[in-house]
Amino acid sequence: QGQLVESGGGSVTPGGSLRLSCAASGFNLEYYAIGWFRQAPGKEREIVSCINSSGGGTYSADSVKGRFTISRDDAKKMIYLQMNGLKPEDTGRYSCAADRGMDGSGEVCFPSPYEYDFWGQGTQVTVSS
Fold first, then answer.
1. In sequence order, what are the beta bridge partners of 97?
2. pLDDT tens-digit readout, 31-77
3. Which residue in 64, 78, 83, 106 has the fewest CB atoms around it within 10 Å?
4. Rounded to whole angstroms, how far apart are CA atoms 60 and 89?
5. Do residues 31 and 105 touch, judged by C-beta distance below 8 A?
6. Spatial CB neighbours of 120, under 8 Å, sequence gap ≥ 6
């Protein structure tokens, strides 16, 4: 079992930016796809973005495409989510999760939260005027 710890959340006004970080430890990050998910009160958890183990394949939800960028630095055991042009509907708790996949390669990242093996505790993002 590994550990993921998110940081970088906070409160911003619409149009602002935040950079979330996910620190990985206790496992070999190179074998895992990483996803960022968010959950607003009364809503189901939804995919924000994910990145495969090699870093060459990414997926972003339509709602954040062009505004958010996911990246990873395996040497530093860090995954990032750069969020620009934030909107009130981006408000929620953001969590990162790791998925080794059925074949243990993590070469494909999936938008479903049920695919992921373990999770961080999350960090709150609030966008309001």
1. 35, 119
2. 999 999 999 999 999 999 999 999 999 999 999 999 999 999 999 99
3. 78
4. 16
5. yes
6. 3, 4, 5, 6, 22, 95, 96, 97
